Amino acid sequence: MNTLETKSTQSYEEFVESLTRIPESLAPEAREVEYTREPAPLKKNDIVICYPYRTGFGTFSKGTLVEASATEIGSKLVNALLDKTGRDDIRRRVGAVYIGMINHESMNPAGEIAKHSGLEEASALTLNTACASGLRSILDAASAVRDRENTGVELAVAGGFESMSNTSDRISPDRNGRGFGDRVIHDGILVSLADVFEKDAKGRALHMGVIGGRTEPGRPQVDRQAADIYAFRSQQLAAMAQEANYFDNRIMPIEVEKNRKSVVFNSDESVKGRIVTMEGLAKLRPAFEKDGQVTAGNASGLSDGGGAMIVTYAENAEKLGLEIAARLESGAIVGVNHEYMGTGPIYSTEKALQRADLKISDIDSLYLNEAFAHVALMGGYALGATYRNLNRNGGAIAHGHPTGGTGAMLTVNGICDLDNNPEMQNVGVTLCVGGGQGITGVFGRVAA
User: Fold this and answer.
1) Does this model's pTM top 0.70?
2) Active site amino acids
């Protein structure tokens, strides 16, 4: 049962104040972090992640990826990561492809990505679990591999992709016997970001920006100042990571067309970073409600991109000579009250930690998707996360949120933390989900 118990040992005011501390560098000593745990030995049936890569985060509507469809982006990335294995036979060994995507461009985008990647014999499943889609594809692939005697899947490709820039608009009402007559065009992005369970005064489904600004009753109420403090922190940390080329080893360059020219895309171009100030954030007007607290500055922006990886079991990875990047320690998906969908990460993370026999203090880096600052603040405090491990490299407020791809991209970021910090043991990835769900994946270092 979902409870209001808070794991933090700080007061809420102390938690918010701690988020004003921006480290001078990415070094552990600058972040005031000590790592003392050792990774557990790898067992032959452990689910492992190999060759996790992502694209850069492309700026919505005007960035480098603006002319590329989500399936094109996905096909290029999956092809490239399969080539990274160095095995001529890797494509025929892929038993299934799981791709998260919210705004479908065709009948089965996962099938298109599979075919364009030379995976002629693999089954393909496109998942739409709103913002959970990218991470859900990884957990579902893991389940298929774990149950390989029944599924026949020993090795899968999993990930998520989204082109918010190319989301199609919707027309209503359907003809449905009406014949001719004018119809209304609805913005496809707004349709995909609406809560159908709750209506406004005009009978329209409420935008996530309204629901995402709510704090569950019984928890410390997130105000505008705290949300802006959090947003400023996210931008500064993301800029710091970008300046240090922190994620470069896991960003796969892809070649796309823009303005009739071929361009190589390999950066997080949507990060504003250093130009963002607290004063500037304070001047922004509420974006979704007249007296609301959610603004364009303390909510995630839209962006294009995605990530993918190979999911298999340890014995198989070692037999094939694949590079193991991380082990899947646990995962959890839960349902929550849609009116407070931002609580999803709290309850899914609690369940995932319980399954892995871990505490929040065992998570060295927690990527709690910054759909809205309110979600990260409410969830981070309730879980007992601190400024040391909560979104330590910024998040969607800075780099944007390519909805169906974000879960996979954050997973790649988490594994990049393991790459760059040899003392780190566990990373967590968690997202709230429109309509009332939460999803979490916990990934651990593999002993050398």
Assistant:
1) yes
2) 131, 401, 432
